[in-house]
Amino acid sequence: MTYDEPLVGTLAILMSLLAMAIAAGPWHVPYQLRTFAAICDRYGKPVARSIWLAIALAAFGSGLAILSGVRPGYADQQVPAKPTGK
């Protein structure tokens, strides 16, 4: 695990908690963002809440994957050394 993975994973989980709070909370300000306002106008607030929930689940899953060290099959397990400048 490199030095930045705990930071990025923790931030992803914190952002997922924020999105979950927006989806479950009584706030109206996040739904005034242009994209969410258009979704609310066209499909209604329950769909916009569902999208906030989907964002929260995706961010939480990403944070857990980063913190657990999941890597794609083609990724190198070790951080490459800095070039020597030959």
What do you see in this structure?
The chain crosses the membrane at residues 47-67. Keywords: Membrane, Transmembrane, Transmembrane helix. This protein is mainly alpha-helical and 86 residues long. It has one domain. The longest helix is centred in the middle third of the chain and has 24 residues, at 45-68. Helix 1 packs antiparallel against helix 3 (45-68) and helix 2 (34-43) packs across helix 3 (45-68). It starts with a helix and ends in an 18-residue tail after the last helix. It has three helices and no strands. The radius of gyration is 18 Å and the shape is elongated.
Q: Tally the helices: what do you get?
A: 3
Shape call: elongated
Query: Major sheet: size, sense and barrel closure?
Result: none
Mean pLDDT: 89
The structural class is mainly alpha
N-to-C CA distance: 28 Å
The Cα radius of gyration reads 18 Å
Helix content: 55-70%
User: What number of domains?
Assistant: 1
Residue ranges: pLDDT <50 for 5 or more in a row? none
Keywords: Membrane, Transmembrane, Transmembrane helix
Transmembrane segments: 47-67
What's this entry about, in short?
Helix content is 63%, strand content 0%. It has 86 residues and is mainly α. It has one domain.
Task: Summarize this structure as a short list of keywords or feature phrases.
single chain; mainly alpha
Question: What's the topology here?
Answer:
Layout: H1 5-24, H2 34-43, H3 45-68
Helix pairs in contact: 1-3, 2-3
